[in-house]
């Protein structure tokens, strides 16, 4: 009798719990051996950049650049899409500071400790900022140079697909290396400047502050990362998916995290581009807000814009079906 009571109590508790389950963005897992090859290319300051490549190089090449504080693994739902793999030649890489790439630092700790860390970082920005957009662009250049030494670029179509900060990085590459022909650009939750003023008690701004805590307090830094990834999607990430993002963010050196405060605007450059561009905008993105997304899209000369409902800043995982279809359609037309 007692045992039965216990069991019925257990079952009741179980039912109550399952009744409040909310829809989540799950972590899909993918086969380990998919025929990708990987290697390092050496870029500016001797930094080794980890690259992965797959698919028939005779097909148009898509180069995926991921978001701030994320690795190439962010692209798994696209990288493992059978149709994308069959139609295109795919390349993805880890930024300097992330994933398997080198993680240079500027020895911020060993210089004059009377200055706060921001002052020391900002005073180094022109010469030795190891994580500027321009240096990320040199990494992309090193990668593309390696591809051009292997494949006939005269015949080749190259499309840059960026997510979030991957867009200003792709644009910086195009700006700094105008001799390399890029045939299309896709902005997924991208932005063209970071000079937007944060509103008072803006949650995101507070998380970013923790991320670059002047004492580099580990607990604050990780809480900041946790906060940022919690606000990445409209439906919450499953715990597993959030752990994937947290884990890849955790390796980022302080200098990488600090680079986010360096002001930039690529608005003027973007307005000179006439190649086809596609903007994917999540209607519920709170990291790059709608006002900015519309401003960015309005600058282009050859822009197509697609909005996703009930999607936040991470269409890569939040709306795999439509995003993969839109990638295929866009690149096939080029
Ligand atoms: C940055 O973007 C905002 C829109 O979010 C725009 O109003 C502003 O003019 C832009 N600034 C620069 C320097 O491009």
UniProtKB/TrEMBL annotation:
<dbReference type="Pfam" id="PF12697">
    <property type="entry name" value="Abhydrolase_6"/>
</dbReference>
<dbReference type="InterPro" id="IPR050266">
    <property type="entry name" value="AB_hydrolase_sf"/>
</dbReference>
<dbReference type="InterPro" id="IPR000073">
    <property type="entry name" value="AB_hydrolase_1"/>
</dbReference>
<dbReference type="InterPro" id="IPR029058">
    <property type="entry name" value="AB_hydrolase_fold"/>
</dbReference>
<feature type="domain" description="AB hydrolase-1">
    <location>
        <begin position="62"/>
        <end position="318"/>
    </location>
</feature>
<keyword id="KW-0378">Hydrolase</keyword>
<dbReference type="GO" id="GO:0016787">
    <property type="term" value="F:hydrolase activity"/>
</dbReference>
<protein>
    <submittedName>
        <fullName>Epoxide hydrolase</fullName>
    </submittedName>
</protein>
<keyword id="KW-0732">Signal</keyword>
<dbReference type="GO" id="GO:0016020">
    <property type="term" value="C:membrane"/>
</dbReference>
<feature type="signal peptide">
    <location>
        <begin position="1"/>
        <end position="23"/>
    </location>
</feature>
């Amino acid at each position: 009798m007692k045992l039965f009571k216990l069991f019925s109590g257990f079952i009741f508790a179980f039912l109550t719990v399952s009744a409040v389950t909310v829809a989540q963005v799950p972590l899909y897992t993918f086969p380990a051996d998919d025929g990708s090859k990987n290697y390092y290319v050496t870029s500016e300051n001797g930094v080794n950049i980890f690259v992965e490549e797959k698919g028939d190089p005779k097909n148009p090449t898509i180069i995926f650049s991921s978001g701030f504080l994320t690795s190439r693994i962010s692209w798994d739902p696209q990288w493992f899409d059978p149709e994308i793999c069959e139609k295109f030649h795919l390349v993805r890489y880890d930024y300097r500071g992330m994933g398997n790439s080198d993680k240079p630092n500027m020895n911020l700790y060993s210089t004059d400790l009377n200055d706060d860390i921001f002052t020391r970082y900002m005073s180094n920005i022109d010469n030795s900022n190891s994580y500027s957009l321009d240096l990320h662009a040199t990494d992309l250049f090193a990668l593309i140079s390696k591809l051009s030494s292997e494949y006939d670029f005269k015949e080749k179509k190259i499309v840059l697909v960026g997510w979030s900060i991957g867009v200003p990085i792709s644009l910086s590459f195009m700006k700094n290396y105008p001799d390399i022909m890029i045939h299309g650009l896709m902005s997924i939750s991208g932005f063209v400047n970071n000079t937007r003023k944060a509103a008072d008690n803006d949650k995101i701004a507070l998380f970013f502050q923790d991320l670059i805590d002047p004492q580099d307090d580990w607990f604050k830094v990780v809480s900041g990362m946790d906060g940022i990834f919690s606000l990445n999607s409209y439906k919450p990430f499953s715990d597993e998916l959030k752990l994937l993002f947290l884990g890849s963010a955790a390796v980022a050196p302080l200098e990488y995290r600090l680079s986010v405060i360096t002001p930039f605007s690529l608005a003027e450059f973007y307005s000179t581009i006439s190649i086809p561009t596609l903007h994917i905008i999540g209607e519920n993105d709170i990291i790059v807000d709608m006002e900015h997304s519309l401003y960015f899209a309005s600058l282009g000369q050859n822009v197509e814009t697609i909005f996703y409902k009930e999607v936040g800043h991470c269409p890569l995982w939040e709306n795999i079906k439509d995003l993969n279809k839109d990638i295929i359609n866009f690149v096939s037309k080029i």
